[in-house]
Write a structure and sequence with these properties.
SDR_fam, two-stranded parallel sheet, globular, 42% helix, 3-oxoacyl-[acyl-carrier-protein] reductase FabG, 252 residues, Rossmann fold, 7-stranded parallel beta sheet
Length: 252
């Protein structure tokens, strides 16, 4: 039985990944923070298509709550699937904010650290005993941490995403003894809610970004969701320790 935990599944890339994983036959636990309605929408869409899904709350920036979350997850696994383990974990929760280096306050730097790096690190550590041998972990990184995506104003955000890419490789090495594959996916500019619905609020930025993208458009959440679902699946059984940029050729 395949069961995937998707953190940040209430909208955008996480929602798309949850739906695509369900289409490939996985049960889904959709994790949300503040957007309960979005998580319930994700669950409803999976159930309408014949899949099984449950929504659970978690603030990835509050690591002190992780042990209690694990207990809630274990209870959900038992009640919904009669299971004690999961096969997949997607660390996708996050937020984006532009801040020039000289203007970045310590509070923002700390928040990026808690949500984008410390959270995935400690949550994966907390849930590791529940992940089946031969399972898969996918982390959502960012091409802002790659040469192709370097943009002024993202030093704090991208530094944490760069750390997540390094963590991905170390997890792949250390967890390989259990057959657990670990990869990350680096989106380019993608139409999601992460930057406070920037594409909806400022549609004039879309054309210039599309012009810088080899495939001629801005990314959509499902473009990334399909890649994540693939990496979770057995079809990607020989892929590990990779950071895969999925940006349509941004700045190519």
């Amino acid at each position: 039985m395949s069961i995937t935990v998707v953190v940040g599944a209430s909208s955008g890339i996480g929602q798309a990944a949850a739906i695509r994983a369900a289409e490939l036959g996985s049960g889904v636990i959709a994790i949300y923070n503040s957007n309960k309605d979005g998580a319930e929408e994700t669950v409803a869409r999976i159930r309408e298509a014949g899949g099984t899904a449950v929504a659970l709350p978690l603030d990835v920036g509050a690591s002190e709550t992780f042990p209690a979350f694990r207990q809630s997850l274990e209870q959900t696994l038992t009640e919904t699937w009669g299971a004690t383990t999961i096969t997949g974990l997607v660390n996708n929760a996050g937020f984006g904010q532009m801040s020039m280096f000289e203007d970045t306050p310590e509070e923002l730097l700390d928040r990026f650290y808690r949500v984008l790096l410390k959270g995935p690190y400690l949550l994966t550590q907390t849930l590791l005993p529940l992940i089946q041998d031969g399972g898969a972990i996918v982390n959502t990184s960012s091409n802002s941490a790659l040469p192709s995506g370097l943009e002024a104003g993202y030093s704090a955000y991208a530094s944490m995403k760069g750390g997540l890419i390094v963590l991905t490789k170390y997890l792949a090495k250390e967890l390989s003894t259990r057959g657990i594959r670990v990869n990350s996916v680096a989106p380019g500019p993608t139409r999601t809610r992460i930057a406070d619905d920037a594409f909806e609020k400022y549609p004039e930025v879309i054309a210039p970004i599309a012009a810088r993208t080899a495939l001629g458009r801005v990314g959509e959440a499902d473009d990334l969701g399909t890649v994540i679902a693939f990496l979770l699946s057995d079809e990607a059984r020989w892929i590990t320790a990779q950071d895969i940029e999925a940006s349509g050729g941004f700045n190519l």
